[in-house]
């Protein structure tokens, strides 16, 4: 799908930002963060859901494919920036929790200065890539200029996001992620307004997508600076706080996250580029559309899991490992309640969905590619919170090494397998399916075992959750197939109705299977009380 900040002035700003007037316990804070994250995600996906077929219809699937490819190139550059920024929130949060104002300012200032320098350096290769785009990837002359402008705005958007990333730490430090979500809602509305205006008053072009994203990012940046000043007034950017030792500390920890990002690129992030070079730019557009829904699902559960990250980091700073374990188990059960719904719905209704969503495309091909891209979700979605554990405990080295080895094998097999066939459809299946196969291996073996090791609990601790989630996916899928056979799903209303039936059944089944008697009783009492 197409890839932020609310206007809280006066009394509204005081309401959200003045901690003396708004005092909430951890549970209420968690609930506020979770609701805001979900609402923000729904708005983002809803807007993208409506805009994707709109853009594809106006500029074509081939041109749309270059949106995803440009974002992939950005992810390649993030290998460099993630080494510094991935651990910044952790260290700043710990310093503030320890009431070390001097230390938090040294970390904050050092990262801000380093990010500005990095953005300036990366602007040079970005310009070279844009100017020589047709020599790097396959792009038809008819859309070359439009695609170059698209990439220019997407790369500029990335450079601005590098500079602004440190300022987003304030809502994390204060465990007020709902403010970030509210930013996202407003920024997405702004993004769609820019797109609609551009397509309405000017000749349709794919580069409007990049322009809209850039405008939204600038808006988010302004409000992140505002939140930093309001939520963490003790943090100042001053020349005297810049410290190369701090940069070295962050890089020594974050370099392994760079390896993890590189590994992700090698295993899945090269899919569109490999398709462009080894199949065609048109096939790349098809794969880009097919990966939209799986990416959205993974983003949703990553977003839900991220709500646990601030408190997990705070608990680690307080050396409260028991609380960390409770938080992780809580996140697994919470995510498990809903994990089977999108997977079962895709299995049963996926082809119908594509016929309705992008009627000009091959629905069956999109459906098969989508299923190949999300098989791992059967096992891994409830465990998304474990990635936060590795960051909070600063144990990312082993994760990075495993991911890197996994990805090298993945891309090697893809490149070799592509040499044995000339069928473009089979090539797409190879590209989409190979990375998923190794993702399944990672989900079933490395992630649960190493996660248990980091918590010092039994290595099999997470396998009951994996087995239960797999069972719920199978049961919910069978139910959804029965619904599809009994209902005539020939429009959006019937598809939505079928999805609601699947959701109700899945939540009811998981409520019984995933929760124990005490937990079910507690949930019922809380619902009745509310």
Q: Can you put this structure into words, describing what you see?
A:
The structure is a single chain. This protein is mostly helical and 530 residues long. It folds into two domains: 57-269, no CATH class; 282-299 and 312-530, no CATH class. 81% of the residues lie in helices and 0% in strands. Helix 2 packs parallel to helix 9. The chain is globular and about 60 Å long. Mean pLDDT is 79; it is low at 1-24. It is found in: Cell membrane. Its main location: membrane. This is Polysaccharide biosynthesis protein.
Order of helices and strands: HHHHHHHHHHHHHHHHHHHHHHHH
Number of helices: 24
The helix content, as a percent range, equals over 70%
Query: How many structural domains can be distinguished in the coordinates?
Result: 2
- Global shape: globular
> How many β strands by DSSP?
0
| C-alpha end-to-end distance | 36 Å
Strand content: under 5%
Class per helix and strand makeup: mainly alpha
User: What is the gyration radius calculated from CA atoms?
Assistant: 23 Å
Write down the overall mean pLDDT.
79
Describe the sheet with the most strands.
none
SSE inventory with pairings:
Layout: H1 10-17, H2 26-59, H3 61-85, H4 88-97, H5 101-131, H6 133-136, H7 144-164, H8 169-173, H9 177-201, H10 207-231, H11 244-269, H12 271-278, H13 281-290, H14 292-306, H15 309-317, H16 321-357, H17 363-374, H18 377-380, H19 386-392, H20 397-417, H21 424-455, H22 463-486, H23 492-513, H24 517-529
Helix pairs in contact: 2-3, 2-9, 2-14, 3-5, 3-7, 3-11, 3-13, 4-5, 4-15, 5-7, 7-10, 9-10, 11-20, 12-13, 12-21, 13-17, 14-16, 15-16, 15-19, 16-17, 16-22, 16-23, 17-21, 19-21, 20-21, 22-23
